[in-house]
Structure to design on (617 residues):
C-alpha cells in the first residue's frame, strides 16, 4: 500500500509536469494517461500468464511452441499482440516516420501517437467488451511527451498483481485532474480491504453477480480472484453485470476487467442511473449483489423511483418537492430486491443508516423481520482513500440456515485495523481472515476456522502455543536489533551500509512473523479451538425479534433495541487492556524527546536570525 501511494505521487508529479508543457487541458489529458497505465498493467499481467503457459510447453524440433491468443483465452487473460506490448512501444526508434511501421489497416505510421493508437485498436480487436472504450487520441501528444510518459509508467511497482491498482491510480489522477468529477455526490473509490471483506463473507462461487454502482470494477476483480483461487474459472461460473452513471468510471471498469481476463456487461450513462433504472432487468434474479453506492444522495425524484419499483418495504421519506432527501434506504431496498430466493448481498453504507429514524426506521424494521439480515460490521475512520468518514458493511442472506435464521451477527471492528500512514488505515490479510473466522463460527463452519489455525501454525512453524511463539519472536527481534547495532558500529566505513541493509531485511522479516503471531494469538485467545462466543467490545449475536428470542433463550433482540443495526449498541465496550508500558518511564522518555526538540528549535531560530542579519533584515 505504501509503495502504491509513493508510486501515485511520483507518477503524478512527472505526468503533470508534462501536461504543463502540452496544450491539452486536464480533461483531455486524463483518459489518455490512464490508457497508458492500462497498457503497462496489461503487459505486466500478460507476461505473468505467458510464463504460466510456457511451463511444460511442448516443443517441436527443439523449439518451444509459440503462445497464441487461444492460450490466453483458456486462462481468462487478455492477449496482447506484439505491437500492443509495452516493451515494444518503449523501445521504438526515435524517428517513427523512418522506421517503416504500418498500422493494422496497412497504412504507414509517422508518429508515436499513431503507433499507440494502433496498439489500442489491436487490443480492442482481442476483446469485444473493449470496443470503443480505449482512448485513441494519442496523436494530440508530441512524440517527445508521449515517449517520456511511456518511460514514466514503466515502473516495476505496477507489476504487483491483484486488487484494483488501476482503480487506485485512476482515482488519484482523477482527483488531481478534475476535482469536480472526483467529488461527485459521494462517489469515491472502494478500498481493497473493504472489497475483500465483502467478497470473503459473500463467498461467490457461481451465478449472477450485480454491482449497480460499479465504479472502476473492484468488486468484480476481487470476486474473480476469489472464484479462481477456489479452483474454478470465474468467466465460466460467474456472470458479471454492472451499472455506472459516470461514463469515465464505466470505461475504466471495462479496462480493469479486461486486464484481469474477466468479461461482463456494463451499462453507463442515464440509463444506468440505478435510482431510476434496473438496466439489466435483474430484479429478483441475482445470486450476489455487491456495491459501494454513493452515500447520502439528496434530491432523488420520488415518482421516478416508485415507477422503477424494487422497493419491497415502501418508499423512504419524501419532502414537499416530491424528492427523497436521503437515498441510502433506496439503495438498501434495491440491493435486497435484486436477490433471488437464496441470494446474498454485501455493501458499504454510511454509518448513520444503521440507526436513522422516520421512514428509514420502518423500512429497517420490515427488513429485520424478514430474517435475511446476516452480518453487520462497523468500520472505523480513515479506510477510504480520499475521505475520512466511518462506515458500515451490511450483509443479507436469503438462504440462511435454520440455526441462524432468526439471528444477526454484529461485529464492531472500529478498533481493529492496521495503520498504513497518518491518513489511511486498512485490514491486513490476517485481520481479514480473523474477521472472516468470526463469521464462519457464527455460521457453524468450524472446519474453515480449524484450517485457518493450521495455516497459522504452518507459517509460524512451531508446535508451541501462539502466545509462547509471540513471546519468543519478540525476544529474537530484540536480539537482532542488539546485534545489528553492535555490528554496524564496529564495521568499516565500506561495510556499514551493506551490513545495515542485511539487518534491516532480517528485522523486517521478523516483524512480519511477529504480526502473524499477534493475529494468531488474537484469534485463538478469543475463540480457542473453534467455538463461537460473544466477545465484549467485538462481536455479539442478537435475535431479530422478541418472539425469536423467546422466554427460554435469553440474549438480546433487535426489536428491544428499537430496530437499530448499529454494532456498538450490541457488543458493548471492551475492557481496557494493559499495554505493558511503564507510565513513569514513558513520560520520562517523552520529556527527554520534548527537550531535544526544543533545543533543535532554538538552534534553528538562532540560524534564521543570523541569516536575516546577514541579509540586512
Amino acid at each position: 500500500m505504501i509503495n502504491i501511494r509513493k508510486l501515485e505521487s511520483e507518477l503524478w508529479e512527472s505526468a503533470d509536469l508534462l501536461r504543463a508543457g502540452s496544450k491539452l487541458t486536464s480533461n483531455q489529458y486524463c483518459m489518455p494517461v490512464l490508457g497508458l497505465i492500462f497498457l503497462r498493467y496489461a503487459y505486466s499481467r500478460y507476461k505473468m500468464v505467458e510464463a504460466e503457459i510456457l511451463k511444460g510447453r511442448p516443443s517441436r524440433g527443439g523449439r518451444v511452441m509459440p503462445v497464441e491468443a487461444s492460450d490466453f483465452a483458456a486462462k481468462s487473460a487478455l492477449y496482447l499482440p506484439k505491437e500492443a506490448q509495452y516493451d515494444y512501444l518503449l523501445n521504438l526508434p526515435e524517428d517513427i516516420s523512418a522506421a517503416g511501421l504500418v498500422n493494422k489497416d496497412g497504412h504507414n505510421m509517422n508518429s508515436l501517437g499513431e503507433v499507440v493508437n494502433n496498439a489500442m485498436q489491436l487490443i480492442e480487436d482481442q476483446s469485444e467488451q473493449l470496443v470503443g472504450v480505449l482512448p485513441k487520441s494519442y496523436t494530440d501528444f508530441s512524440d517527445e511527451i508521449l515517449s517520456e510518459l511511456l518511460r514514466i509508467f514503466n515502473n516495476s511497482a505496477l507489476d504487483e498483481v491483484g486488487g484494483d491498482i488501476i482503480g487506485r491510480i485512476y482515482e488519484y489522477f482523477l482527483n488531481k485532474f478534475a476535482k469536480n468529477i472526483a467529488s461527485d455526490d459521494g462517489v469515491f473509490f472502494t478500498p481493497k480491504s473493504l472489497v475483500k471483506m465483502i467478497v470473503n463473507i459473500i463467498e461467490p462461487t457461481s451465478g449472477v453477480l450485480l454491482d449497480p454502482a460499479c465504479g472502476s470494477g473492484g468488486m468484480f476483480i476481487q470476486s474473480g480472484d476469489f472464484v479462481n483461487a477456489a479452483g474454478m474459472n470465474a468467466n465460466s461460473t460467474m456472470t458479471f453485470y454492472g451499472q455506472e452513471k459516470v461514463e469515465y468510471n464505466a470505461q475504466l471498469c471495462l479496462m480493469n476487467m479486461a486486464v484481469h481476463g474477466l468479461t461482463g456487461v456494463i451499462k453507463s450513462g442515464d440509463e444506468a442511473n440505478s435510482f431510476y433504472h434496473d438496466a439489466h432487468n435483474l430484479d429478483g434474479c441475482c445470486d450476489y449483489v455487491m456495491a459501494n453506492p454513493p452515500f447520502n444522495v439528496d434530491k432523488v425524484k420520488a415518482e421516478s423511483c416508485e415507477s422503477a419499483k424494487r422497493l419491497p418495504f415502501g418508499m423512504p421519506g419524501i419532502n414537499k418537492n416530491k424528492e427523497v432527501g436521503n437515498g441510502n434506504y433506496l439503495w438498501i431496498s434495491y440491493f435486497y430486491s435484486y436477490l433471488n430466493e437464496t441470494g446474498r448481498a454485501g455493501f458499504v453504507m454510511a454509518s448513520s443508516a444503521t440507526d436513522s429514524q422516520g421512514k428509514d426506521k420502518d423500512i429497517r424494521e420490515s427488513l429485520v423481520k424478514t430474517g435475511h439480515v446476516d452480518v453487520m460490521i462497523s468500520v472505523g475512520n480513515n479506510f477510504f482513500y480520499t475521505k475520512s468518514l466511518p462506515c458500515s458493511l451490511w450483509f443479507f442472506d436469503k438462504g440462511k440456515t435454520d440455526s441462524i435464521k432468526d439471528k444477526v451477527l454484529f461485529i464492531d471492528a472500529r478498533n481493529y485495523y492496521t495503520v498504513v500512514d497518518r491518513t489511511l488505515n486498512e485490514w491486513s490479510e490476517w485481520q481479514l481472515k480473523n474477521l472472516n473466522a468470526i463469521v464462519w463460527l457464527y455460521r457453524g463452519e468450524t472446519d474453515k476456522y480449524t484450517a485457518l489455525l493450521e495455516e497459522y501454525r504452518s507459517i509460524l512453524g512451531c508446535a508451541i502455543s501462539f502466545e509462547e511463539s509471540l513471546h519468543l519472536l519478540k525476544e529474537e527481534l530484540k536480539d537482532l536489533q542488539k546485534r545489528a547495532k553492535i555490528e554496524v558500529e564496529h564495521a568499516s566505513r565500506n561495510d556499514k551500509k551493506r551490513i545495515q541493509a542485511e539487518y534491516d531485511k532480517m528485522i523486517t522479516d521478523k516483524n512480519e512473523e511477529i504480526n502473524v503471531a499477534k493475529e494468531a494469538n488474537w484469534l485463538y485467545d478469543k475463540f480457542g479451538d473453534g467455538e463461537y462466543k460473544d466477545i465484549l467490545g467485538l462481536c455479539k449475536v442478537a435475535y431479530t425479534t422478541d418472539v425469536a428470542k423467546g422466554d427460554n433463550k435469553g440474549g438480546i433482540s433487535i426489536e428491544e433495541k428499537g430496530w437499530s443495526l448499529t454494532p456498538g449498541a450490541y457488543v458493548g465496550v471492551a475492557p481496557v487492556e494493559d499495554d505493558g508500558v511503564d507510565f513513569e518511564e514513558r513520560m520520562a522518555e517523552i520529556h527527554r524527546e520534548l527537550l531535544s526538540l526544543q533545543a533543535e528549535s532554538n538552534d534553528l531560530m538562532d540560524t534564521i536570525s543570523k541569516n536575516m542579519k546577514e541579509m540586512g533584515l
About this structure: The longest helix spans residues 493-527.
